[in-house]
Amino acid sequence: MQTGEILPLIREIAQQYGAEVLISDDWGAYRDIADDLGLDHQICRNHVKRNVDDRAGSMRHQVKRDTIDPEGVLSDPDKLEDYLQQLQALIRERPPDASKQLRYLYERYQAATKPTRKGQKYSVWYRMRTLIVPLWERWQR
To answer: In sequence order, what DSSP letters do the residues of the chain get, joined into one string?
Structure first.
């Protein structure tokens, strides 16, 4: 379904029921729709939890094979496990300082770079960075 098709439907429902908040999965168009309609937007915590858990599991498996020390990254395989557990706890517990913790985690992985060769797989370090950034950017939602 395209954004243009769903916007009128959500507008109608929001007006009919006096909605103030749009709760959705993490599809980017919902953020835009909520903004267009003047609604607060909350990303479904269950979707976020499941997505983080799935990616954490995949990275745990990858780090066993991907043992190259990351240049400039302030992490190693043991720290990665600790940081993945920290991320999972942040999603479940939503502590008041979560944004500060996400910033700290980002600083550990900010040097991780995207592969430069076509077809080259993302390193576990870059994948961690790409997991942290959207969580940090969207934390208030």
So the answer is: --HHHHHHHHHHHHHHHT--EEEE-S-HHHHHHHHHHT-EEEE-HHHHHHHHHHHHHHHHHHHHH--PPPTT-S--HHHHHHHHHHHHHHHHH--TTHHHHHHHHHHHHTT-----STTPPPPHHHHHHHHHHHHHHTTT-
Q: Where are the domains of the chain?
A: 3-43, 45-137
pTM of the full structure: 0.79
pLDDT tens sequence across 81-110? 999 999 999 999 999 999 999 999 999 999
